[in-house]
Structures are given as structure tokens and as C-alpha cells.
Amino acid sequence: MDTKRIVIKNRENPADEELFEAARILKEGGLVAFPTETVYGLGGNALDGDAARRIYEAKGRPSDNPLIAHISSMEELAPLVSRIPEAGQILAEKFWPGPLTMIFPKSDQVPLSTTGGLDTVAVRMPDDPVAQKLIRLAGVPVAAPSANTSGRPSPTTADHVWQDLNGKIEMIVDGGPVGIGVESTIVDVTGPVPVILRPGFITQEMLDELFGHVEMDPAITGPMKEGIHPKAPGMKYRHYAPKGQLTLVELTEKTVKALYTPGSSLYSQVSRIMADRGRSWGLDPESFYMAWQVNRLAEEKEKEGCRVGVICTEETRDVYTAAVKRSIGRRSSADSVAHNLYAVLREFDDLGVDYIFSESFARDHLGQAIMNRLSKAAGYQICRV
Ligand code: TXA
Ligand code: MG
Fold first, then answer.
1. How far, in Å, from the CA of 37 to the mean position of ligand 1?
2. Which of 113, 125, 261, 373 has its CA 20 to 30 A from that of 201?
3. What are 142's strand-pairing partners?
4. What Gene3D superfamilies does the record tag this protein with (predicted)?
5. What does the pLDDT look like over 343-384, one tens digit per residue?
6. 310 lines ligand 1 (CB under 6 A)
7. What gap in Å lies between CA 248 and CA 371, rounded to an integer?
């Protein structure tokens, strides 16, 4: 199949004519990849069981992993669900359109092939203007998983989509790089308390503020223990495993405390090294020590003759002497790290390194989503120093 690629001239305000053909393809049961504010989606008609099956096939994805139905206005929600729980109403008012997906009890209209056999349905109203207009013109809810081959990082540019899906889908709508870079937050609103099934740009802190307290599915924080099933079936898959073995380096609380305690041996050691190597980087001891440890592990592996890469940040780049380094963004800006995360992982796959060592990030706010994606990519291999 020839995959057509169209480039949207003005991302903020796409012309209807630019999207007519894409909308027609969706209406007729075809597949179109399109930008959203989180990652690129691989769209098909959510009410058409055959379109859903084609999505699974194009991605090479197990068909028990349900899809998210994307809508462009609140009126489009009611036909998809059998009930709108109060928490769902509150969240829709606060965060839609935006990077939030909610799980509702499904209506009979939604085929089981879209929901992977579940009696619930995931719904999201994206706020990207291209996505919004495309869904509206298609006139149907659009099922869209991330537009990557199963097992590769989610795509944040149309080129990433092209690498994975060229020849397998009818069209790619190129709206330039996405803004956020990690997939939407998923919240289950079917029970008495909202439960976060996947962390994202809408953070636990924002939801706690709204509801007092929300719960987290245990699958978010650690490897799956036997007998525990994540409520978002997709969270059970390793999702993406880099070609090189990824290890995250994280500082323990004890280390952080020592780094700020004058008189501790770590404090003296780190002060001495920082003074030797130039305090002028302006790094705080925590960032410096983390980078220094990542560098040490990378150098060790290099000495064994392995090809090694490091994931660094703008602030810490100059600390590294070892290996191929790629910056994932600024430590001072979780937004920038989320934005670059998948592109950097894709780059390391192309570079063909054996081992990758990465700095880690604070696990609060957007950092929760960042650490969730990085930990999963590392198969939860985290070196705590
Ligand atoms: O940001 C996003 O959400 C992107 C863009 C394209 O909108 N889409 C996306 O889709 O990330 P996907 O298919 O890669 O991830 C959907 C996740 C999976 O983990 C799936 O298991 C979960 O949503 N999910 C879908 N329906 C569900 C349901 N009824 N109950 C629980 N989890 C569900
Ligand atoms: Mg995905």
C-alpha cells in the first residue's frame, strides 16, 4: 500500500480542505496517523470493528490491548458510554480538551474489538487543532493508539510514524513535532474513587487537588508481580525495550541527605571533586553526583570494550567524559524532558549501542510519567547509589 503524507501548513489553524481526504479515509474504514498534543495517533473509525482490527494489524499489537476513542466535543461522549459518573463530568469540565483519557462503562455502540473485549471504553478529547478538526470532519469517534510499531517508542514526529508505518496505512498527516511528548494520563472513573492507570501530563497532584485523593494502579510504580493484573491492559506489556540494555541511576534519600550535610564523608568527597573539575558548571551537588555516577558506570562498561551511550541533560552534559551522550532536556524543566524522551530513545536504537545509562528525575508532578516510561524501558533496572 502507498502511504500518502500530507503536511499541514498552519498547525494552529489547519484549513478544512487540508483534512477532507484524511476524514474521508477514516469514514470509509481506512487508517490515518495524525498529531495530537501528546504523541502521534494511528486513527481508525472506533465504531467499525474491522477498522480496529486493521489498527492492531498495522501496529503488530496484541488485540486484547484496548484502544482509546477520540472525540472532538462533549456531545460525542454520550453515545459511547452507558453512564457518565460524576467524577468523569468534573474531569471533563476541568481538563477536556486535553491530555486526559477516562475509562467509562461502554455503550452497545462500541464494538468489543475496539475495547479489547472489555465492557468499559477509554475516551479522550484531544486539544490539538489538527486532531480536533480531523475528528470533527470524520464525523465518527476515532480510535487511536500511539502510531508506532508495537515494541518501539511512541512517535513524536511524523518521521517517526513514517519509519514504523510506511506502506501499512493510507495516510500520515504531518503537523510537525508534538508538544507534550508522553501519552495522556488515563483515569478510571467507573469506581467510587478515581484511579490513575497511566501517569501523564495531568498529574496526580492536579487530581488530588480536585478530589482530595485519587488512587494509583500498582502497575504504575513497579514491575508486575505475579497474580496482579494492571487495570490498563497495555501497562502489562514491556511496551518498548531499547536495543541496548538501559539502566537508570537514581540517588537514594540517604545519599541526597549526605550530599547536603557538611561533615559527612560524601559531602567532603563531592565538594573536592567538584572543586577539582570546575564548580563553574553551576550544578547543585545532587545533579553533579548523579551525572558523575552515570559517567562512572558508562566508563566501566567502555573499558570492557562495550559500545555505551548515556542519557544526559543540558545542565550535566559537560560532566561526562565517557561514551556517546544525548541530552534529554533540562533538569530544571520536566516539560523539556517529556518532550524529548521518545526521540532520544529512538536515536539510541539507531546508534546501536550495547548499554545505555541514564540520569533519573524527581518522581513528582510530570516526573512521575517520565520515570514511569523510563523505568519501563529499562525493564525496571534501576541502580540506586
Ligand atoms: O496520548 C494518548 O493517549 C495517545 C494519543 C494518540 O491520544 N494514545 C495512546 O494510546 O497512548 P495507546 O493505545 O498507545 O494506549 C492506550 C492505553 C493502553 O495502555 C490501554 O491498555 C489503555 O489505554 N486502555 C484502553 N482502553 C481501556 C479500558 N477500557 N480500560 C483500561 N485501560 C484501557
Ligand atoms: Mg502506545
1. 15
2. 113
3. 45, 70
4. DHBP synthase (3.90.870.10), Threonylcarbamoyl-AMP synthase, C-terminal domain (3.40.50.11030)
5. 999 999 999 999 999 999 999 999 999 999 999 999 999 999
6. no
7. 9
Q: Which of 72, 101, 198 to mutate to test the pocket of ligand 1 (most atoms within 8 A of CB)?
A: 101
Task: Name the percent of the chain lying above pLDDT 70.
Answer: 97
Q: Is the CB of 149 under 6 A from ligand 1?
A: no
- Smallest-distance ligand from the CA of 43: 1
Question: Is 61 marked within a binding site?
Answer: yes
- So what's the pLDDT on residue 378? 95
pLDDT digits (tens, 9 = 90+) for 252-264: 999 999 999 999 9
The atom number, within ligand 1, closest to the CA of 232 reads: 32
Q: Is 363 annotated as a binding residue?
A: no
DSSP string over 324-381: EEEE---TT-HHHHHHHHHHHHHHHHHHT-SEEEEE---SSTHHHHHHHHHHHHTTT-
Distance 145 CA to ligand 2 centre (A): 6
Count of CB atoms situated within 10 Å of the CB of 105: 16
E strand intervals along 40-148: 41-45, 68-70, 100-105, 120-124, 142-143
Task: Judge contact between 259 and 270, C-beta under 8 A.
Answer: yes
Cell numbers at 372, concatenated: 514511569
Q: What is the pLDDT of residue 279?
A: 55
Model pLDDT, residue 274: 83
Q: What is the spatial distance between Cα 383 and Cα 300, in angstroms, rounded to a whole number? A: 14
**Which is nearest to 287 in space by CA: 261, 258, 319, 309?**
319
Is 326 labeled as ligand-binding?
A: no
- To the question of pTM greater than 0.90 for the whole model, the response is yes
